[in-house]
Amino acid sequence: MNAAQASVEIAGTHSRQAVLVEPGRLELRDYVAPHPGPGELLIQIRCALTCGTDLKMFRRGHPLWKLPIAFGHEFSGVVMEAGEGVAFKAGDEIMAAPTAPCGICFYCQHGQQNLCDDAVGRMVLGAYADLLLLPAHVVACNTFIKPADLPFEEAALLEPLSCVVHAQEMARPEKSETVAIIGGGAFSLLHMLVLKAAGVREVAVVGRGAKRLKWAQEMGADRVIDARSVDAAAEIARLNGGFGPDLVIECTGQVEGWQDAVARVRRGGRVVFFGGCPVGTVLSVDTRSMHYDNLTLMAPFHFRPRDVRRAYELLEGRALNAGAIVNARMRLDDLVEVFAMLERGVVLKCAVIP
After folding, report:
1. Which of 170, 241, 244, 254 is the most exposed place for a label (fewest CB within 10 A)?
2. Side-chain half-sphere exposure of 214, counting CA atoms within 13 A
């Protein structure tokens, strides 16, 4: 079932929460939010953002979560009620990432909090709603006061921006380098904005469709390349004085994109596999080329608290114009149409306003 065929059922009027009942079917259900316990916050959602992960989950479910399940994980809002012992109070405008590590497991103790099983396992879901309860571990670690001049929809970018920050810290782009980003979606353009804000010399976006390439160009890409063009490979090869890109960031989450990324990077270059591929897929790499061309391949996942802090600082400093990524606004009642728009590729990120 596609988004246009999906249905929504409104069960109540006072407080609502979207539930993904099965692939392609959403219900907007009555939601009675609990009072927050010690360390917790009850927030009124002011903005929830769509995400590529949400779209994939809408289409086919998700291997980590059993349906039916509350839906949505990028958000910002206002504290309605604060539990005992928290540093926030009713009326505070906040922004948060939906996960936080345990701090005590093997991975946390080795500085790899992004791999903590507790982080994704206890992810906050249910942001397509009027109200949302934030658990104590998220409140204590990855929740911040929203700057007064930062729009709620831009503040809701904290989680995806944290993923981008983590990936780029691994990749370590230099100002003198040329970077090619494969994919023209929201994550690709977030990568582009962060690279340009850091002063990277040349950033090319390789995407599909005139609309997405136009968006990339308007937001500051130095060059846009239509991936469907017969000359796309040659155009990428001409980058960087004919040596090809120093760094390739793959954001499509398709094996073909991963393979293309390895094929396009220059000798001695680096590849970031940012987009997660479907379960069971396999990447084949020419070992001779990888060895003798001295390639570095990396696949960053999720983020650490320090990445969230850095993402917050970028948004707080208004360094990115990240709000340009959000190019549609709809009401919570119109969530089915929101996903139809995502299916048609006519929007990068949509702000869902309760």
Report:
1. 241
2. 6
187 within 8 A of 164, measured Cβ to Cβ: yes
Contact 173, 179 (CB under 8 A): yes
Q: Over its length of 354 residues, how does the chain's per-residue pLDDT go in tens digits?
A: 443 344 333 333 368 999 999 999 999 999 898 999 999 999 999 999 999 889 989 998 887 888 999 999 999 999 999 999 999 999 999 999 999 999 999 999 999 999 998 998 899 999 999 999 999 999 999 999 999 999 999 999 999 999 999 999 999 999 999 999 999 999 999 999 999 999 999 999 999 989 999 999 999 999 999 999 999 999 999 999 999 999 999 999 999 999 999 999 999 999 999 999 988 999 999 999 999 999 999 999 999 999 999 999 999 999 899 999 999 999 999 999 999 999 998 999 999 999
Residue range(s) in the chain whose domain bears CATH number 3.90.180.10 = 3-156+321-353
> What is the Cα 177 distance to its own chain's centre?
24
Least Cα distance to 213 among 49, 339, 348, 323 occurs for: 348
Q: Angle of helix 52-60 relative to helix 335-344, nearest 10 degrees?
A: 100
> What Cα–Cα distance (Å) separates residue 295 from each residue in 170, 243, 258, 299, 342?
15, 14, 14, 13, 35
pTM of the complete model: 0.94
Phi-psi region of 85 (alpha: psi -120 to 50; beta: other; left: phi over 0): left
- Where exactly does CATH 3.40.50.720 map onto the chain? 164-298
CATH 2.60.120.10, applies to 3-156+321-353 = no
Alpha helices, DSSP H only, in 150-282?
Answer: 152-155, 158-171, 186-197, 210-218, 232-237, 239-242, 255-264
Say how far apart CA 180 and CA 176 lie, in whole Å: 14
CATH of domain 164-298: 3.40.50.720
